[in-house]
Amino acid sequence: MRVYMRAWEPGKSATKVERVTRVSIVIARDGSVVSAKIVAPSGDEQVDKSVQLTLDKIRFVQPFESGAKEDRRTFTINFDLRVKT
Questions:
Q1: What pTM was estimated for this model as a whole?
Q2: Which listed site, 11, 36, 60, 67, has its alpha carbon 20 to 30 Å from 4?
Q3: d(CA 23, CA 39)
């Protein structure tokens, strides 16, 4: 999650009102991003575009810890302007 939040640049025109974009991300054991998509848009076109750009940019994250049994993990992340610093 930190990788995505650090990479997210919502833009200067975005206001810190209740705008949350929910995404689903599937990561493979080796850390490669299998899929990343918006599942619940915020309703603000610019915010959602900035989130999509972030999803498109990240293709790899840290691999799973040794001993992990799953081949893939699915994560849900809420991109929330109110907590973006």
A1: 0.87
A2: 67
A3: 5
